[in-house]
Design brief:
about 160 residues, mainly alpha, 6 helices, MARVEL-CKLF_proteins
């Protein structure tokens, strides 16, 4: 019979080590990245099943990028690798994804008449909104960072 682990004991390695921490899943960034990943995967599946299969590459790439950033932020790679400014990378990814999803959703809804294309277009419009919310929030973080950087710069020049 197994005894329960004490509260302070480290969890045993296994499948649980692959799951992101709960506090990240409850954060706004974690929920947005999870929503982006799920929507991109659904759109990818819809495009595979539709006549508009030529559009399937964009959702696949966005799914992989969102999944990578989800696990990078969850495992705190952004704190370990300081050479890359992560919010800027995330901002550029979200802006391009919103534009691409909006464009291919309009094309899928207007050009193709099958149900899977229409579903992919509707999910694409929802994904456009989710990516737009993400890039708006990330843009506010970038502006805050740039304002802090510009306020520090004149003080540095005065002391030299």
């Amino acid at each position: 019979m197994e005894e329960p682990e004490p509260a302070g004991a480290a969890p045993q390695p296994g499948l649980r080590s692959l799951l992101p921490p709960r506090e990240f899943l409850r954060s706004r960034k974690g929920q947005l990245l999870l929503a982006e990943s799920v929507l991109s995967f659904i759109i990818f599946i819809c495009y595979i099943a539709s006549l508009a299969a030529s559009f399937m590459m964009a959702p696949l790439l966005e799914f992989l990028l969102a999944l990578f950033l989800f696990f990078a932020y969850a495992s705190k790679l952004n704190e370990k690798f300081k050479g890359l400014y992560w919010p800027l990378t995330d901002f550029l990814r979200c802006v391009t994804a919103a534009i691409i999803y909006f464009a291919i959703s309009i094309a899928a809804v207007s050009k193709y008449s099958d149900g899977a294309s229409k579903a992919a277009g509707v999910f694409g419009f929802v994904a456009t909104i989710v990516f737009a919310i993400d890039f708006y929030i990330t843009f506010n973080d970038l502006v805050t960072f740039l304002k802090q950087g510009s306020s520090d710069a004149p003080e540095g020049h005065k002391s030299e």
